[in-house]
Write a structure and sequence with these properties.
globular; disordered C terminus
């Protein structure tokens, strides 16, 4: 095919010549006519403006346009740019190209055919850019569905969605004139390293064999022998957990046990080296589900730029993981607890500007209504037991008062501002722990320590009301002291913590914070697929071209925790 396109370039160049068309040139006239009467595309305004900037001369055919012509044709065929194998006018472009190459077009019709081919190429560029930058998702529909969850499920799901726009025609005209189209297209790739990884993953899972469905049965362990093991070994070779050079027999040996442990880790199953029915369930995940998940995550990537900053914090909610990047490299990672499924952590970007040691916690009005009032009705001594103080207002010098329970309870089911401020003072039992990391945002959520470390032992760490609790907050704080506006030695930090007084440490450099929702990750040679805890993936899938539904129905069965622990009788509403 590449040889064919090179031959076509030569043919078009020789036939058309190297001269610059004048305003009265037949090809320019045909381009104008084609734009007016034959281009039926949502991108007609952009394409027309692109030709106006070029005085309606051809942008693709002719020797002067050979580099751009070749670059676009290759991009349209390249899975890196067109991983869904979309047509993008390719069928018609090939048909016209063959007709011109074969000499089957009469001399009188040549200008019209060349004009048609040139305009189709311009429209194909716009379609490709729209796919790379915007994608196949109806993002306003996604927003409407998320908003509807509040009305139907009382779930305040929030996602700051800002779809990109197409490059303006002047930018594209400059790119074509400078003959840097290939470089420009690569610059449109969102979060390039991740995008390339997912495109490669998509190609891998499209080639996944259709393994027979495994039957459930007895739990298998080391030294077991079972007819299912041979197929599981074949499956694990595809997934990358089991070395390709090892035998596919029915024996559960030590090397296979290691592969089982890796598989369970990737899917956040309880650790171990056994194959139980829950693992069989995950092994039976159909090929279509993997592909669907990868496609949805590729669409989500398109909301983001070509790359993020050199230093930043990322919290991937469905992975329950935060990472800190310095100079583009992850230098710190910690597990996190995120919002409950009925109080999901919002997805947004902000900038961290300060930390607070020995923080107080002011309970927001919505949590006073939803949690504190019901708790006080059950346990009137709850405030004293948790060192929560009551003030008359949010003013700095507002006096502390005794709570009028009847007055407070009258605010449970309305939206009037609550006439009290509830503040939990610093202590070892403070809900925010010993440090919080602040990045101002309209959702009033942040990263913080916690007094309840046991929650990090759960598979689905969805226990907060939106904030994110960090398992290793002190290690994170020490890294951030590198950016502190002031000298904070270990002795100074120890002194502050022991004082139990709230202390703000401002950062001399604001650090970007990205709260994201990616359910697929490629790392350390392994593929990780995370559970869609908030159903964002499903909402997006049902808002994509080819799968679009105007409304979203929440399934009756959602989370399926595999690890159950005895919980203390307390309420987690912070």
């Amino acid at each position: 095919m590449k040889k064919y396109y090179l031959l076509l370039l030569l043919t078009l160049g020789l036939a058309y010549g190297a001269s610059t068309p004048s305003a009265a040139d037949p090809l320019s006239e045909q381009i104008t006519q084609t734009l007016e009467t034959k281009l039926h595309s949502p991108f007609s305004p952009q394409v027309t403006e692109l030709y106006r900037l070029n005085q309606f001369r051809p942008l693709w055919i002719g020797p002067q346009n050979a580099a751009n012509y070749a670059a676009l044709l290759q991009a349209l065929e390249n899975p890196l740019f067109n991983y869904n194998h979309k047509n993008f006018n390719r069928s018609e472009i090939k048909r016209l190209s063959f007709a011109l190459d074969s000499g089957s077009i009469s001399p009188a019709s040549l200008p019209a055919v060349r004009a048609r081919l040139d305009v189709l190429m311009s429209d194909a560029l716009m379609q490709l850019l729209n796919f790379l930058r915007v994608g196949d998702v109806d993002w306003p529909l996604v927003q409407r569905k998320l908003k509807r969850l509040k009305e139907t499920q009382d779930v305040q799901a929030a996602w700051d969605i800002h779809p990109k726009k197409l490059p303006d025609p002047q930018t594209l005209f400059t790119v074509l004139k400078q003959k840097v189209l290939e470089r420009f297209l690569r610059q449109q790739i969102p979060l390039e390293h991740r995008y390339r990884s997912l495109v490669a993953l998509l190609q891998k899972y499209r080639q996944m064999p259709r393994f027979p469905k495994l039957s459930q049965g007895r739990t298998l362990r080391i030294n077991s022998s079972d007819s299912r093991i041979a197929q599981i070994k074949r499956m694990m070779k595809f997934f990358g957990d089991y070395p390709k050079n090892l035998p596919e027999d029915n024996e559960f040996d030590r090397r296979f046990a290691e592969a089982v442990r890796h598989f369970r880790e990737r899917f956040k199953l309880p650790p171990g080296e056994m194959i139980d029915n829950k693992m069989i369930h995950y092994l039976n995940t159909p090929k279509s589900e993997y592909i669907k998940k990868i496609l949805v995550n590729l669409e989500k990537l398109k909301l983001y730029p070509h790359h993020w900053e050199s230093d930043y914090v990322e919290v991937n909610v469905p992975e329950y993981k935060m990472r800190f990047y310095r100079n583009g490299q992850a230098i710190f990672a910690s597990d996190v607890v995120v919002g409950r499924i009925d109080r999901p952590t919002p997805i947004f970007d902000s900038k961290m500007t300060y930390m607070v040691l020995n923080p107080t916690w002011t309970i927001p009005d919505n949590l006073v209504r939803r949690d504190l009032i019901p708790m006080l009705k059950k346990n009137p001594d709850y405030l004293r037991q948790h060192d929560i103080h009551v003030f008359t207002s949010y003013k700095p010098n507002a006096p502390e008062v005794e709570l009028d329970f009847a007055k407070l309870f009258s605010y449970e089911h309305d939206q009037r501002p609550i006439p009290y401020r509830f503040v939990q003072f610093p202590s070892d039992s403070n809900a925010l722990g010993k440090v919080k990391f602040m990045f101002p945002n309209k959702y009033s959520v942040y990263l913080h320590d916690t007094d309840n470390k046991k929650l990090f032992g759960y598979r689905y760490r969805v226990f907060s009301s939106g904030c994110m609790r960090v398992e290793k907050p002190m290690d994170f704080m020490e890294l951030l002291l590198h950016y502190a506006a002031g000298n904070y030695t270990p002795e100074k930090i120890r002194e502050i913590l022991e004082s139990n007084r709230p202390t703000t440490i401002r950062l001399k450099k604001a650090i970007p914070v990205h709260i994201v929702y990616f359910t697929v990750r490629r790392a350390n040679g392994k593929d990780y697929f995370f559970y869609d805890i908030y159903l964002h993936d499903q909402i997006i899938w049902e808002s994509m071209a080819g799968h679009k539904k105007q409304s979203f129905k929440v399934p009756e069965k959602r989370l399926n925790p595999l690890r159950k622990e005895r919980r203390k009788k307390r309420h987690y509403f912070f």
